[in-house]
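Each record in this resource describes a single protein on a pair of labelled lines. An example record follows, reproduced without changes.
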Amino acid sequence: MDTNLRTQGQPTCILLSLLLAFSAGIAPALAQTPQDLAAWSAEALPAAQRTNLFASWNGVREIDGVVLRLPDGWRLNEAIAIERPFMKTEELRVRRLRTGTYRLDADRELTGAYQLVLDVTPARRTETARWEIAPFVRRGSAAIELTEHRSNRTLQLVRPKAPAGNRALQLAATDPPLELEPAVLPRFGNRNPFTVEFWTRTIDRGGVLFSTWDGQESTAYPFEFMVDKDGHLSVYRGGPGRHQSVVSRVPIADGVWHHVAITYRPARLELVINGELVDAVDAAELPSLNERAPVVLGSRPNAPRTRRIEAELDELRFWSEARTVESIRRTRSLAMQTQGGDRIVIDFEGVIPRGLLTEPAGQVGTAPATLMLQYPVQQIAAEVQAEGVWLSWETEVERDHAFVVERSEDGERFEEIYREPAYASSAAQRFSFVDYDAQGESGVRFYRVVQRFEDGIRLTSKTLKVGLGPAELPRTARLLGNWPNPFTSRTDIRFELTESQTIGLSVWDVSGHQVGQLANGRFEPGPHQITFDASRLPSGTYFVHLQTAAGEQTLKMLLAR
Protein backbone atom coordinates (compact mmCIF):
# COMPACT_ATOMS: atom_id res chain seq x y z
CA MET A 1 0.00 0.00 0.00
CA ASP A 2 1.59 3.30 -1.12
CA THR A 3 -1.09 5.72 0.01
CA ASN A 4 -2.66 6.93 3.24
CA LEU A 5 -6.10 8.55 3.35
CA ARG A 6 -8.19 8.93 6.41
CA THR A 7 -11.96 9.20 6.19
CA GLN A 8 -14.50 9.94 8.87
CA GLY A 9 -18.28 9.85 9.00
CA GLN A 10 -18.66 8.07 5.65
CA PRO A 11 -21.27 5.38 4.96
CA THR A 12 -20.10 1.78 4.96
CA CYS A 13 -20.37 1.41 1.17
CA ILE A 14 -18.09 4.40 0.62
CA LEU A 15 -15.60 3.10 3.18
CA LEU A 16 -15.57 -0.24 1.37
CA SER A 17 -14.90 1.52 -1.92
CA LEU A 18 -12.06 3.43 -0.34
CA LEU A 19 -10.52 0.26 1.08
CA LEU A 20 -10.67 -1.39 -2.35
CA ALA A 21 -9.04 1.64 -3.92
CA PHE A 22 -6.31 1.66 -1.24
CA SER A 23 -5.49 -1.97 -2.07
CA ALA A 24 -4.82 -0.85 -5.67
CA GLY A 25 -2.53 1.99 -4.56
CA ILE A 26 -5.03 4.75 -5.43
CA ALA A 27 -7.04 6.88 -3.03
CA PRO A 28 -10.24 8.37 -4.51
CA ALA A 29 -11.02 12.04 -3.88
CA LEU A 30 -14.67 12.82 -3.13
CA ALA A 31 -14.91 16.45 -4.26
CA GLN A 32 -17.63 17.18 -6.85
CA THR A 33 -16.43 19.34 -9.77
CA PRO A 34 -17.24 19.27 -13.52
CA GLN A 35 -15.68 16.53 -15.65
CA ASP A 36 -12.70 17.76 -17.68
CA LEU A 37 -11.17 14.51 -18.96
CA ALA A 38 -12.61 13.05 -22.16
CA ALA A 39 -11.89 9.46 -23.23
CA TRP A 40 -12.16 8.56 -26.89
CA SER A 41 -11.88 5.38 -28.97
CA ALA A 42 -13.56 3.95 -32.04
CA GLU A 43 -16.94 2.31 -31.55
CA ALA A 44 -15.59 -0.96 -32.96
CA LEU A 45 -12.00 -2.22 -32.85
CA PRO A 46 -10.40 -5.32 -34.34
CA ALA A 47 -9.74 -7.96 -31.71
CA ALA A 48 -6.09 -8.77 -30.85
CA GLN A 49 -4.69 -5.99 -33.08
CA ARG A 50 -2.70 -3.06 -31.69
CA THR A 51 -4.62 0.17 -31.52
CA ASN A 52 -4.58 3.56 -29.81
CA LEU A 53 -6.96 4.82 -27.16
CA PHE A 54 -7.08 8.57 -26.56
CA ALA A 55 -7.96 10.94 -23.73
CA SER A 56 -7.79 14.73 -23.57
CA TRP A 57 -7.26 16.71 -20.37
CA ASN A 58 -8.28 20.38 -20.55
CA GLY A 59 -5.86 21.62 -17.90
CA VAL A 60 -8.44 22.69 -15.33
CA ARG A 61 -5.83 21.87 -12.67
CA GLU A 62 -2.36 20.36 -12.35
CA ILE A 63 -2.18 16.56 -12.26
CA ASP A 64 0.62 14.04 -11.80
CA GLY A 65 -0.68 11.30 -14.07
CA VAL A 66 -3.69 9.12 -14.77
CA VAL A 67 -5.12 5.79 -13.70
CA LEU A 68 -6.13 3.50 -16.57
CA ARG A 69 -8.45 0.51 -16.24
CA LEU A 70 -8.57 -1.89 -19.17
CA PRO A 71 -10.86 -4.90 -19.75
CA ASP A 72 -9.62 -8.40 -18.97
CA GLY A 73 -7.20 -9.75 -21.53
CA TRP A 74 -6.05 -6.32 -22.77
CA ARG A 75 -2.39 -5.24 -22.70
CA LEU A 76 -0.94 -1.74 -22.36
CA ASN A 77 2.15 -1.29 -24.54
CA GLU A 78 2.98 2.39 -24.11
CA ALA A 79 1.51 5.64 -22.78
CA ILE A 80 2.33 9.12 -24.12
CA ALA A 81 1.34 12.59 -22.91
CA ILE A 82 1.40 15.37 -25.55
CA GLU A 83 1.34 18.97 -24.39
CA ARG A 84 -1.00 21.24 -26.31
CA PRO A 85 -0.64 23.33 -28.39
CA PHE A 86 3.15 22.82 -28.55
CA MET A 87 2.99 19.06 -29.28
CA LYS A 88 5.79 18.36 -26.79
CA THR A 89 5.81 14.62 -26.07
CA GLU A 90 6.49 12.89 -22.76
CA GLU A 91 6.45 9.15 -22.15
CA LEU A 92 4.55 8.20 -19.02
CA ARG A 93 5.97 5.66 -16.57
CA VAL A 94 3.71 2.61 -16.41
CA ARG A 95 3.06 0.90 -13.10
CA ARG A 96 0.74 -2.10 -13.05
CA LEU A 97 -1.30 -2.04 -9.85
CA ARG A 98 -3.36 -5.16 -10.49
CA THR A 99 -4.82 -7.00 -13.46
CA GLY A 100 -6.13 -4.43 -15.93
CA THR A 101 -5.32 -1.40 -13.73
CA TYR A 102 -2.31 0.82 -14.44
CA ARG A 103 -0.96 3.99 -12.88
CA LEU A 104 0.71 6.24 -15.46
CA ASP A 105 3.11 8.71 -13.84
CA ALA A 106 4.55 11.83 -15.43
CA ASP A 107 8.11 12.86 -14.59
CA ARG A 108 6.86 16.35 -13.84
CA GLU A 109 3.54 17.88 -12.94
CA LEU A 110 1.25 18.15 -15.98
CA THR A 111 0.17 21.79 -16.19
CA GLY A 112 -2.20 22.86 -18.94
CA ALA A 113 -3.95 20.88 -21.68
CA TYR A 114 -2.69 17.44 -22.73
CA GLN A 115 -3.61 14.70 -25.16
CA LEU A 116 -2.94 11.17 -23.90
CA VAL A 117 -2.20 8.38 -26.37
CA LEU A 118 -2.50 4.83 -25.03
CA ASP A 119 -1.02 2.08 -27.19
CA VAL A 120 -2.90 -1.11 -26.33
CA THR A 121 -3.55 -4.61 -27.64
CA PRO A 122 -7.16 -5.74 -27.07
CA ALA A 123 -8.22 -9.25 -26.13
CA ARG A 124 -8.58 -11.96 -28.75
CA ARG A 125 -12.25 -12.60 -28.11
CA THR A 126 -15.09 -10.62 -29.65
CA GLU A 127 -17.09 -8.82 -26.99
CA THR A 128 -18.46 -5.53 -25.74
CA ALA A 129 -15.69 -3.89 -23.72
CA ARG A 130 -15.36 -0.82 -21.51
CA TRP A 131 -12.24 1.08 -20.50
CA GLU A 132 -11.84 3.88 -17.99
CA ILE A 133 -9.38 6.64 -17.18
CA ALA A 134 -9.07 9.17 -14.35
CA PRO A 135 -6.42 11.74 -13.34
CA PHE A 136 -4.62 11.65 -10.02
CA VAL A 137 -2.51 13.99 -7.89
CA ARG A 138 0.20 13.10 -5.35
CA ARG A 139 -0.15 13.97 -1.69
CA GLY A 140 3.07 12.84 -0.09
CA SER A 141 3.23 9.11 -0.66
CA ALA A 142 -0.45 8.94 -1.58
CA ALA A 143 -1.85 9.07 -5.11
CA ILE A 144 -5.29 10.69 -4.95
CA GLU A 145 -7.55 9.69 -7.83
CA LEU A 146 -9.83 12.51 -8.94
CA THR A 147 -12.93 10.40 -9.46
CA GLU A 148 -15.08 13.39 -10.39
CA HIS A 149 -13.04 13.64 -13.60
CA ARG A 150 -13.27 9.95 -14.42
CA SER A 151 -14.19 9.17 -18.03
CA ASN A 152 -14.95 5.90 -19.82
CA ARG A 153 -15.72 4.51 -23.24
CA THR A 154 -17.62 1.41 -24.38
CA LEU A 155 -16.75 -0.32 -27.64
CA GLN A 156 -17.17 -3.56 -29.54
CA LEU A 157 -14.33 -5.94 -30.37
CA VAL A 158 -14.87 -7.49 -33.80
CA ARG A 159 -13.07 -9.74 -36.28
CA PRO A 160 -13.05 -7.91 -39.63
CA LYS A 161 -13.37 -10.10 -42.70
CA ALA A 162 -11.10 -9.38 -45.65
CA PRO A 163 -13.20 -9.54 -48.84
CA ALA A 164 -11.69 -11.67 -51.57
CA GLY A 165 -9.37 -9.72 -53.85
CA ASN A 166 -9.47 -6.42 -51.99
CA ARG A 167 -6.01 -4.92 -51.49
CA ALA A 168 -4.67 -1.62 -50.14
CA LEU A 169 -1.43 0.29 -50.56
CA GLN A 170 1.00 -0.23 -47.67
CA LEU A 171 2.87 2.98 -46.84
CA ALA A 172 6.12 2.10 -45.08
CA ALA A 173 9.27 4.06 -44.28
CA THR A 174 11.40 1.47 -46.06
CA ASP A 175 9.50 1.58 -49.36
CA PRO A 176 10.11 4.22 -52.05
CA PRO A 177 7.31 6.81 -52.28
CA LEU A 178 5.04 6.86 -55.34
CA GLU A 179 4.77 10.04 -57.42
CA LEU A 180 1.62 10.41 -59.49
CA GLU A 181 1.77 11.88 -62.99
CA PRO A 182 0.52 15.50 -62.68
CA ALA A 183 -0.78 15.64 -66.27
CA VAL A 184 -3.53 13.07 -65.60
CA LEU A 185 -4.73 14.59 -62.30
CA PRO A 186 -7.04 17.58 -61.90
CA ARG A 187 -5.53 21.05 -61.87
CA PHE A 188 -4.91 22.31 -58.34
CA GLY A 189 -4.70 26.04 -59.10
CA ASN A 190 -6.26 28.88 -57.14
CA ARG A 191 -9.20 29.00 -59.58
CA ASN A 192 -9.62 25.25 -60.07
CA PRO A 193 -12.19 23.40 -57.94
CA PHE A 194 -11.22 19.85 -56.97
CA THR A 195 -11.87 17.02 -54.53
CA VAL A 196 -9.43 14.49 -53.12
CA GLU A 197 -10.75 11.51 -51.17
CA PHE A 198 -9.42 8.19 -49.89
CA TRP A 199 -9.68 5.56 -47.17
CA THR A 200 -6.86 5.14 -44.65
CA ARG A 201 -6.02 3.03 -41.61
CA THR A 202 -3.09 3.57 -39.23
CA ILE A 203 -1.90 3.62 -35.64
CA ASP A 204 1.23 5.60 -36.54
CA ARG A 205 1.47 9.29 -35.69
CA GLY A 206 3.52 12.32 -36.61
CA GLY A 207 4.11 11.80 -40.35
CA VAL A 208 3.01 12.56 -43.90
CA LEU A 209 0.40 10.44 -45.69
CA PHE A 210 0.84 12.17 -49.04
CA SER A 211 1.71 15.66 -50.16
CA THR A 212 2.28 18.24 -52.90
CA TRP A 213 4.76 20.29 -50.82
CA ASP A 214 8.53 19.92 -51.05
CA GLY A 215 9.02 21.32 -47.55
CA GLN A 216 10.58 24.57 -48.76
CA GLU A 217 9.13 27.70 -47.20
CA SER A 218 9.32 29.47 -50.57
CA THR A 219 7.05 26.90 -52.28
CA ALA A 220 3.28 27.33 -52.56
CA TYR A 221 1.32 24.06 -52.44
CA PRO A 222 -2.38 23.07 -52.67
CA PHE A 223 -2.51 20.33 -49.98
CA GLU A 224 -0.60 18.05 -47.64
CA PHE A 225 -2.18 15.26 -45.56
CA MET A 226 -0.56 14.51 -42.19
CA VAL A 227 -1.35 12.44 -39.12
CA ASP A 228 -0.25 14.61 -36.22
CA LYS A 229 1.52 13.41 -33.08
CA ASP A 230 -1.79 13.41 -31.22
CA GLY A 231 -3.42 11.15 -33.80
CA HIS A 232 -5.57 13.79 -35.49
CA LEU A 233 -5.55 14.22 -39.26
CA SER A 234 -4.49 17.66 -40.53
CA VAL A 235 -4.62 18.97 -44.07
CA TYR A 236 -2.34 21.91 -44.82
CA ARG A 237 -2.37 24.43 -47.67
CA GLY A 238 -0.05 27.37 -47.96
CA GLY A 239 2.87 29.27 -49.34
CA PRO A 240 5.63 31.67 -48.30
CA GLY A 241 4.89 32.98 -44.82
CA ARG A 242 1.39 31.51 -44.57
CA HIS A 243 0.09 28.01 -43.91
CA GLN A 244 -3.56 27.16 -43.28
CA SER A 245 -5.00 23.91 -42.01
CA VAL A 246 -8.19 21.97 -41.40
CA VAL A 247 -8.15 19.31 -38.66
CA SER A 248 -10.26 16.29 -37.74
CA ARG A 249 -12.34 16.65 -34.58
CA VAL A 250 -11.22 13.30 -33.18
CA PRO A 251 -8.08 11.20 -33.72
CA ILE A 252 -7.97 8.83 -36.68
CA ALA A 253 -4.82 6.87 -35.69
CA ASP A 254 -6.93 4.20 -33.99
CA GLY A 255 -6.36 1.21 -36.27
CA VAL A 256 -9.73 1.32 -38.06
CA TRP A 257 -10.64 2.53 -41.54
CA HIS A 258 -11.58 6.19 -41.98
CA HIS A 259 -12.79 7.96 -45.10
CA VAL A 260 -11.09 11.32 -45.67
CA ALA A 261 -12.01 13.96 -48.25
CA ILE A 262 -11.12 17.58 -48.95
CA THR A 263 -13.05 19.77 -51.31
CA TYR A 264 -11.64 22.99 -52.68
CA ARG A 265 -13.66 25.65 -54.39
CA PRO A 266 -11.98 29.02 -54.95
CA ALA A 267 -11.37 30.61 -51.54
CA ARG A 268 -12.82 27.68 -49.54
CA LEU A 269 -11.25 24.44 -48.25
CA GLU A 270 -13.41 21.87 -46.44
CA LEU A 271 -12.51 18.64 -44.63
CA VAL A 272 -14.98 15.76 -44.60
CA ILE A 273 -14.31 12.73 -42.35
CA ASN A 274 -16.49 9.61 -42.59
CA GLY A 275 -19.12 11.54 -44.54
CA GLU A 276 -19.37 14.49 -42.11
CA LEU A 277 -18.07 18.04 -42.54
CA VAL A 278 -15.66 18.55 -39.62
CA ASP A 279 -13.67 21.69 -40.48
CA ALA A 280 -13.41 24.44 -43.08
CA VAL A 281 -11.27 27.50 -43.75
CA ASP A 282 -11.37 30.48 -46.09
CA ALA A 283 -8.44 29.59 -48.33
CA ALA A 284 -6.10 32.42 -49.24
CA GLU A 285 -5.00 32.81 -52.85
CA LEU A 286 -1.46 31.52 -53.17
CA PRO A 287 1.00 33.40 -55.40
CA SER A 288 2.98 31.25 -57.83
CA LEU A 289 0.92 28.14 -57.06
CA ASN A 290 1.75 25.31 -59.46
CA GLU A 291 -1.61 23.97 -60.65
CA ARG A 292 0.18 20.82 -61.82
CA ALA A 293 1.86 20.19 -58.48
CA PRO A 294 3.19 16.63 -58.15
CA VAL A 295 1.37 14.34 -55.71
CA VAL A 296 3.65 11.95 -53.78
CA LEU A 297 2.16 9.06 -51.78
CA GLY A 298 4.00 8.34 -48.55
CA SER A 299 6.25 11.42 -48.54
CA ARG A 300 6.84 14.90 -49.94
CA PRO A 301 8.15 15.65 -53.45
CA ASN A 302 11.96 15.71 -53.51
CA ALA A 303 12.15 15.69 -49.71
CA PRO A 304 13.91 12.48 -48.56
CA ARG A 305 14.07 13.60 -44.92
CA THR A 306 10.31 13.77 -44.56
CA ARG A 307 8.95 11.99 -41.48
CA ARG A 308 7.00 9.22 -43.18
CA ILE A 309 4.14 7.28 -41.72
CA GLU A 310 3.17 3.62 -41.79
CA ALA A 311 -0.41 3.34 -42.95
CA GLU A 312 -2.80 1.68 -45.38
CA LEU A 313 -4.29 3.69 -48.23
CA ASP A 314 -7.15 2.61 -50.49
CA GLU A 315 -9.67 3.96 -53.01
CA LEU A 316 -7.74 7.16 -53.77
CA ARG A 317 -9.96 9.42 -55.88
CA PHE A 318 -9.27 12.76 -57.55
CA TRP A 319 -12.17 14.83 -58.91
CA SER A 320 -12.06 17.95 -61.08
CA GLU A 321 -15.00 19.39 -59.16
CA ALA A 322 -15.79 20.46 -55.61
CA ARG A 323 -18.13 17.69 -54.51
CA THR A 324 -20.85 18.29 -51.96
CA VAL A 325 -20.78 16.65 -48.54
CA GLU A 326 -23.92 14.71 -49.47
CA SER A 327 -22.38 13.32 -52.67
CA ILE A 328 -19.23 12.29 -50.77
CA ARG A 329 -21.30 10.62 -48.09
CA ARG A 330 -23.42 8.80 -50.67
CA THR A 331 -20.51 7.32 -52.66
CA ARG A 332 -17.73 6.88 -50.10
CA SER A 333 -18.57 3.22 -49.47
CA LEU A 334 -19.37 2.36 -53.08
CA ALA A 335 -17.03 0.55 -55.42
CA MET A 336 -16.34 2.89 -58.33
CA GLN A 337 -14.98 2.53 -61.82
CA THR A 338 -11.36 3.58 -62.03
CA GLN A 339 -11.90 6.08 -64.82
CA GLY A 340 -14.44 8.70 -65.69
CA GLY A 341 -14.63 12.04 -67.39
CA ASP A 342 -14.53 13.83 -64.05
CA ARG A 343 -12.40 11.56 -61.86
CA ILE A 344 -9.32 9.38 -61.47
CA VAL A 345 -9.63 6.40 -59.12
CA ILE A 346 -6.72 4.25 -57.88
CA ASP A 347 -8.02 1.16 -56.10
CA PHE A 348 -4.64 -0.66 -55.70
CA GLU A 349 -6.28 -3.98 -56.64
CA GLY A 350 -3.61 -4.73 -59.24
CA VAL A 351 -0.98 -2.95 -61.24
CA ILE A 352 -1.41 0.82 -61.11
CA PRO A 353 -2.52 1.83 -64.64
CA ARG A 354 0.22 2.91 -67.00
CA GLY A 355 0.53 6.68 -67.12
CA LEU A 356 -0.57 7.35 -63.54
CA LEU A 357 2.99 7.23 -62.16
CA THR A 358 5.88 9.46 -63.22
CA GLU A 359 8.20 6.44 -63.10
CA PRO A 360 7.52 2.68 -63.24
CA ALA A 361 7.00 1.53 -59.66
CA GLY A 362 7.86 -2.13 -60.10
CA GLN A 363 6.21 -4.15 -57.36
CA VAL A 364 3.96 -1.76 -55.45
CA GLY A 365 3.58 -2.71 -51.78
CA THR A 366 -0.02 -3.83 -51.34
CA ALA A 367 -1.62 -6.30 -48.96
CA PRO A 368 -5.08 -7.80 -48.35
CA ALA A 369 -7.31 -5.18 -46.76
CA THR A 370 -10.33 -5.39 -44.48
CA LEU A 371 -11.94 -2.36 -46.14
CA MET A 372 -15.25 -3.51 -47.58
CA LEU A 373 -16.92 -1.44 -50.26
CA GLN A 374 -20.54 -1.99 -51.16
CA TYR A 375 -22.07 -2.55 -54.57
CA PRO A 376 -25.29 -0.64 -55.22
CA VAL A 377 -28.53 -2.04 -56.54
CA GLN A 378 -28.53 -2.39 -60.33
CA GLN A 379 -31.22 -3.18 -62.89
CA ILE A 380 -34.12 -2.40 -60.55
CA ALA A 381 -37.44 -2.84 -62.33
CA ALA A 382 -41.15 -3.00 -61.53
CA GLU A 383 -43.99 -4.63 -63.45
CA VAL A 384 -47.72 -4.80 -62.76
CA GLN A 385 -48.96 -8.39 -62.94
CA ALA A 386 -52.25 -10.11 -62.21
CA GLU A 387 -51.14 -11.04 -58.68
CA GLY A 388 -49.61 -7.63 -57.78
CA VAL A 389 -46.49 -5.55 -58.44
CA TRP A 390 -43.41 -7.60 -59.33
CA LEU A 391 -40.08 -5.99 -58.33
CA SER A 392 -36.64 -7.25 -59.34
CA TRP A 393 -33.10 -6.01 -58.76
CA GLU A 394 -29.50 -7.13 -59.04
CA THR A 395 -26.30 -6.51 -57.11
CA GLU A 396 -22.95 -7.96 -56.16
CA VAL A 397 -22.92 -8.88 -52.48
CA GLU A 398 -19.61 -8.70 -50.66
CA ARG A 399 -20.86 -9.36 -47.15
CA ASP A 400 -23.95 -10.28 -45.20
CA HIS A 401 -26.66 -7.66 -45.21
CA ALA A 402 -30.35 -7.29 -46.02
CA PHE A 403 -32.45 -5.75 -48.74
CA VAL A 404 -35.46 -3.82 -47.51
CA VAL A 405 -38.31 -3.08 -49.94
CA GLU A 406 -40.11 0.14 -49.11
CA ARG A 407 -43.40 1.46 -50.51
CA SER A 408 -45.00 4.91 -50.54
CA GLU A 409 -48.24 6.44 -51.77
CA ASP A 410 -46.82 9.96 -52.17
CA GLY A 411 -43.12 9.34 -52.97
CA GLU A 412 -42.00 10.93 -49.68
CA ARG A 413 -43.16 8.81 -46.73
CA PHE A 414 -41.99 5.22 -47.17
CA GLU A 415 -42.83 2.12 -45.14
CA GLU A 416 -41.02 -1.21 -45.02
CA ILE A 417 -43.02 -4.02 -46.61
CA TYR A 418 -40.43 -6.76 -47.08
CA ARG A 419 -36.94 -7.72 -45.91
CA GLU A 420 -34.70 -10.07 -47.90
CA PRO A 421 -31.50 -11.39 -46.27
CA ALA A 422 -28.52 -11.63 -48.61
CA TYR A 423 -25.59 -13.99 -48.36
CA ALA A 424 -21.93 -13.23 -49.05
CA SER A 425 -20.96 -13.84 -52.67
CA SER A 426 -18.45 -12.59 -55.21
CA ALA A 427 -20.89 -12.97 -58.13
CA ALA A 428 -23.88 -10.94 -59.21
CA GLN A 429 -27.21 -12.00 -57.73
CA ARG A 430 -30.77 -11.40 -58.86
CA PHE A 431 -33.56 -10.81 -56.34
CA SER A 432 -37.30 -10.39 -56.73
CA PHE A 433 -40.40 -9.67 -54.66
CA VAL A 434 -44.12 -9.49 -55.39
CA ASP A 435 -46.27 -6.94 -53.56
CA TYR A 436 -49.50 -8.95 -53.37
CA ASP A 437 -51.22 -6.16 -51.43
CA ALA A 438 -51.24 -4.08 -54.63
CA GLN A 439 -53.48 -6.61 -56.39
CA GLY A 440 -56.66 -4.98 -57.64
CA GLU A 441 -55.66 -1.50 -56.45
CA SER A 442 -55.64 1.62 -58.59
CA GLY A 443 -53.68 4.86 -58.52
CA VAL A 444 -49.92 5.23 -58.12
CA ARG A 445 -47.40 3.54 -55.85
CA PHE A 446 -43.70 4.28 -55.31
CA TYR A 447 -41.12 1.58 -54.57
CA ARG A 448 -37.44 1.55 -53.64
CA VAL A 449 -34.90 -0.95 -52.31
CA VAL A 450 -32.68 -0.09 -49.33
CA GLN A 451 -29.49 -2.06 -48.65
CA ARG A 452 -28.72 -2.30 -44.94
CA PHE A 453 -25.17 -3.35 -44.08
CA GLU A 454 -23.94 -4.74 -40.77
CA ASP A 455 -21.94 -1.58 -40.02
CA GLY A 456 -25.07 0.59 -40.24
CA ILE A 457 -24.50 1.93 -43.76
CA ARG A 458 -27.67 2.34 -45.86
CA LEU A 459 -27.71 2.49 -49.64
CA THR A 460 -31.00 3.48 -51.28
CA SER A 461 -31.89 2.66 -54.86
CA LYS A 462 -33.68 5.00 -57.21
CA THR A 463 -37.43 5.29 -56.66
CA LEU A 464 -39.78 3.58 -59.12
CA LYS A 465 -43.20 5.10 -59.84
CA VAL A 466 -45.75 2.43 -60.70
CA GLY A 467 -49.21 3.09 -62.11
CA LEU A 468 -51.80 0.55 -60.95
CA GLY A 469 -54.54 -0.22 -63.44
CA PRO A 470 -56.22 -3.21 -65.02
CA ALA A 471 -54.15 -6.35 -64.54
CA GLU A 472 -52.08 -7.54 -67.48
CA LEU A 473 -51.74 -11.11 -68.54
CA PRO A 474 -48.55 -12.63 -67.06
CA ARG A 475 -45.58 -12.58 -69.41
CA THR A 476 -44.05 -15.85 -70.57
CA ALA A 477 -40.66 -14.19 -71.20
CA ARG A 478 -38.85 -11.51 -69.26
CA LEU A 479 -35.66 -9.66 -70.25
CA LEU A 480 -33.83 -9.16 -66.96
CA GLY A 481 -30.90 -7.02 -68.15
CA ASN A 482 -27.15 -7.32 -68.37
CA TRP A 483 -24.32 -7.39 -65.86
CA PRO A 484 -22.08 -5.51 -65.56
CA ASN A 485 -23.61 -2.33 -66.94
CA PRO A 486 -21.74 -0.18 -67.88
CA PHE A 487 -19.19 -2.72 -69.20
CA THR A 488 -15.77 -2.48 -70.83
CA SER A 489 -15.73 -5.41 -73.30
CA ARG A 490 -18.00 -8.31 -72.26
CA THR A 491 -21.32 -8.45 -70.46
CA ASP A 492 -23.80 -11.20 -69.55
CA ILE A 493 -27.37 -10.74 -70.82
CA ARG A 494 -30.03 -12.53 -68.79
CA PHE A 495 -33.62 -13.46 -69.57
CA GLU A 496 -36.17 -15.79 -68.03
CA LEU A 497 -38.87 -17.97 -69.66
CA THR A 498 -41.93 -19.50 -68.00
CA GLU A 499 -42.62 -21.89 -70.88
CA SER A 500 -40.76 -23.43 -73.81
CA GLN A 501 -40.77 -21.06 -76.79
CA THR A 502 -38.80 -19.61 -79.70
CA ILE A 503 -36.97 -16.39 -79.01
CA GLY A 504 -34.63 -14.01 -80.78
CA LEU A 505 -31.96 -12.06 -78.91
CA SER A 506 -30.03 -9.30 -80.69
CA VAL A 507 -28.02 -6.13 -80.02
CA TRP A 508 -28.50 -2.81 -81.86
CA ASP A 509 -26.66 0.52 -81.88
CA VAL A 510 -28.23 3.99 -81.54
CA SER A 511 -28.44 4.42 -85.33
CA GLY A 512 -30.69 1.38 -85.62
CA HIS A 513 -28.15 -1.06 -87.03
CA GLN A 514 -27.96 -4.60 -85.68
CA VAL A 515 -24.45 -5.28 -84.34
CA GLY A 516 -24.99 -8.77 -82.99
CA GLN A 517 -27.37 -11.76 -83.19
CA LEU A 518 -26.97 -13.66 -79.92
CA ALA A 519 -29.77 -16.22 -80.12
CA ASN A 520 -32.47 -17.37 -82.55
CA GLY A 521 -34.17 -20.61 -81.63
CA ARG A 522 -36.17 -22.56 -79.11
CA PHE A 523 -35.34 -22.34 -75.39
CA GLU A 524 -36.69 -24.32 -72.44
CA PRO A 525 -38.33 -22.70 -69.36
CA GLY A 526 -36.06 -21.20 -66.74
CA PRO A 527 -33.32 -18.57 -66.42
CA HIS A 528 -30.85 -18.13 -69.28
CA GLN A 529 -27.62 -16.16 -69.71
CA ILE A 530 -25.76 -15.27 -72.91
CA THR A 531 -22.43 -13.40 -73.06
CA PHE A 532 -22.13 -10.47 -75.45
CA ASP A 533 -18.59 -9.72 -76.66
CA ALA A 534 -18.22 -6.04 -77.62
CA SER A 535 -14.41 -5.93 -77.73
CA ARG A 536 -14.47 -4.79 -81.38
CA LEU A 537 -17.18 -2.16 -80.95
CA PRO A 538 -16.68 1.53 -80.06
CA SER A 539 -17.82 2.94 -76.76
CA GLY A 540 -21.40 4.12 -76.62
CA THR A 541 -25.02 3.16 -75.99
CA TYR A 542 -26.43 -0.13 -77.29
CA PHE A 543 -29.80 -1.87 -76.98
CA VAL A 544 -30.45 -5.55 -76.29
CA HIS A 545 -33.67 -6.74 -77.96
CA LEU A 546 -35.70 -9.83 -76.95
CA GLN A 547 -38.27 -11.00 -79.54
CA THR A 548 -40.96 -13.59 -78.70
CA ALA A 549 -44.35 -14.57 -80.11
CA ALA A 550 -45.98 -12.49 -77.35
CA GLY A 551 -44.07 -9.28 -78.15
CA GLU A 552 -40.77 -7.45 -77.84
CA GLN A 553 -38.68 -6.17 -74.92
CA THR A 554 -35.68 -3.80 -75.10
CA LEU A 555 -33.15 -2.60 -72.51
CA LYS A 556 -30.27 -0.13 -72.77
CA MET A 557 -26.59 -1.05 -72.25
CA LEU A 558 -23.55 1.24 -71.97
CA LEU A 559 -20.15 0.22 -73.36
CA ALA A 560 -17.48 2.37 -71.65
CA ARG A 561 -13.80 1.69 -72.28
User: Anything to note?
Assistant: Residues 267 and 283 are 4 Å apart (CA to CA). The longest strand covers residues 128-139.
